Automatic annotation (TrEMBL):
It comes from the Eukaryota. This is 9728_t:CDS:1. It holds the Pfam family BTB. It comes from Acaulospora morrowiae. Residues 15-83 form the BTB domain.
Length: 119
């Protein structure tokens, strides 16, 4: 019963991320023609990722009541994986959904990942 609940909750968080409903954070990843905007929710980001918790505390809301984080040197493909999965310090649990611990662990060991995810 618990695993069903948690599985459904993870799917609900993933839907929330994909539908862009009620977001209050925009994370701008990449630059130029490789830039992508990720719309997210501070309440989820802050309590699933210590880095984003500290980062968001230091950013004021804009006139649309949205906090904007800009990371031009991060690759969109890499961040897409990160936003859907938590950091290694959170025991590979997801920020918004999708359990892909082994894939994420393997990716984290790659040189491409190490150089691309530097915040």
């Amino acid at each position: 019963m618990t695993s069903t609940f948690l599985g459904n909750l993870s799917l609900d968080f993933l839907k929330l991320l994909e539908n862009n409903d009620e977001y209050n954070v925009i994370i701008e990843i990449g630059e130029g023609s490789f830039k992508k905007l990720f719309r997210a929710h501070s309440i989820i980001l802050c309590y699933r990722c210590p880095y984003l918790y500290n980062k968001l505390k230091d950013i004021d809301y804009n006139d649309r009541n949205i906090k904007v984080i800009k990371k031009p040197k991060v690759l969109v493909k890499v961040f897409d994986i990160v936003i859907r999965n938590s950091t290694l310090e959170r025991y590979y649990e997801q920020i918004y959904g999708t359990k892909s611990s082994n894939f994420f662990y393997n990716l984290a060991g790659s040189k491409t990942f190490k150089y691309s995810i530097t915040f």
